[in-house]
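Protein in question quoted in full.
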Amino acid sequence: MKIPVSHGHLEAVSRDPRGELRGGGVFCHPHPLHGGTMNTKAVYRAAQSLNELGLRMIRFNFRGVGCSTGTFDEGVGEREDVVAALDWLELSVRDRSMVVGGVSFGSLVGLSVGVDDPRVRALVALGVPVTAYDYGFLADTEKPVLVVQGENDEFGAGQEVREIMEGYGEHVTVRVIPGSEHLFQGHFHPLQEAIRAYFLHGPGQGILEDAAVAGAEEKP
């Protein structure tokens, strides 16, 4: 499908949950100049986990990637792409909760939009490259944030990321995947389990409960 944006359109895929619609989510891919696309396995698996929890999920290609129009804009214009995806998603989920997440570069772009967008209730960051980007803006929000990091991530080892991210406040939860590197290759199952546990039993649980209540109130 195509999502309209100022430079033309974004190539995107939307997937509905099998059961009750409890909200929606947008998941962003790694750096476009290093092979990141909406089909990067970590993006697909993370979106799949949220979809199984009842969220209508959107994966999309940033400007200049795949069939998306435009050109790479160093993370600036890409923020506009995230907003466009959220606008499109809002049309179908209405007042239900929305989640924004991303992998590596996509986590920086997605979360920098999500912290300020009142429609977004929770944030998910995978493989945060703390050696390249500053995530200090997370200290300025109270929204629940899940960070999942590979123990041996070459752009920020698990323990290093834990120390940095948890320093931003108690609203940030860090889960480290033993033995995993940056893009979680060979460790997708524990990655997905970390996401599911966070929203089913952890700090993100209230997000889905609130969404279920909102959906019930809309029924005649």
